[in-house]
Design goal:
Elements lengths: L1 H29 L22 H6 L7 H32 L5 H10 L5 H15 L6 H8 L4 H12 L4 H8 L4 H12 L1 H16 L3 H6 L8 H9 L7 H21 L1 H9 L6
Helix pairs in contact: 3-6, 3-7, 3-10, 3-12, 8-9, 10-14, 12-13
């Protein structure tokens, strides 16, 4: 009876897994289909394979190919991820380990920003960045990351730090560590799963960034991959959908690879809250 139940569960999960993965498999298959056949059926096997959709799609439009778009995306994503992790751990360390005036009020204000729709601050933020002269640069992404504007990551790290016994801090003080030494030598190694989780989320979110990049960046030579893909649809004439699908496959590969490489730490960072005292 138990074997039959387990077999049924495995079969059901396999069916649901195939249903969820099917769009991704279809995307890969569509990149090898003739252009006229991409939307004519949902089948996976094309009538004839098109092998040059990746090479032609990589050429992009005009003087900017997808090599430029990928380079711009890396220039955008890597500093944002690093600055987000550094600033978030510093703010989380302050809330988790220190006492200071208005701590509860400031923490409540920080958490309340999670419930604030992004559309509410869109126009004031755009006006502010325009007055600073930051439009058509990556500063509208770098500076907020440096100032720890992502309350979700701060809250995640606070909860992780609260699970680490304060006895470790006291032991580090006895060994001559100051506040910064406690953070860098004791807490950061223990919070590595949570830090990698925050970095993974920020990497995927920034890599897929479209709306804010569309607002703040107006030079094609500075477009990330998301805007590069959209630009291929704005080209006059017929859209080569197989090439768009091919570049979509290439665009999502870094996110998939990073996720699977960091999966161990991601699961640990989500499922645990640090050491148990």
């Amino acid at each position: 009876m138990t074997l039959r139940r387990n077999t049924t569960v495995v079969l059901l999960l396999s069916v649901f897994g195939i249903l969820f993965v099917y769009p991704l498999i279809w995307l890969v298959s569509a990149s090898f289909k003739p252009n006229a056949e991409v939307f004519s059926s949902i089948g996976l096997v094309p009538s004839s394979f098109v092998w040059d959709s990746y090479s032609k799609g990589w050429m992009g439009i005009g003087a900017n190919n997808f090599g430029v778009f990928f380079r711009n995306t890396l220039i955008l994503v890597i500093p944002v991820v690093v600055l987000t992790v550094l600033s978030s751990i510093l703010v989380a360390y302050g809330f988790a380990r220190f006492r200071f005036p208005l701590k509860r009020l400031l923490f409540a204000l920080m958490i309340s920003t999670l419930m604030l729709p992004d559309a509410v601050v869109l126009v004031p933020r755009y006006i502010l960045f325009r007055r600073f002269g930051w439009l058509n640069t990556y500063l509208p992404f770098y500076v907020p990351a440096l100032l720890a504007v992502h309350a979700f990551f701060i809250f995640l790290l606070i909860q992780f730090l609260r699970g680490i016994p304060r006895d470790l801090d006291e032991a580090a003080v006895m060994d001559g560590c100051g506040s910064l030494g406690i953070l860098t030598k004791v807490l950061v190694p223990l919070t590595l799963p949570a830090l990698i989780t925050a970095a993974l989320f920020q990497f995927i979110w920034t890599w897929n960034e479209f709306f804010n990049a569309l607002i703040y960046i107006n030079s094609v030579s500075k477009f990330p991959v998301s805007l590069g893909l959209r630009m291929t649809l704005d080209n006059e004439g017929a859209v080569h959908w197989n090439q768009v699908m091919a570049m979509s496959v290439v665009a999502i590969l870094p996110c998939v690879l990073v996720f699977f490489l960091a999966q161990k730490y991601f699961i640990e960072g989500i499922s645990t809250t640090g050491l148990k005292g």
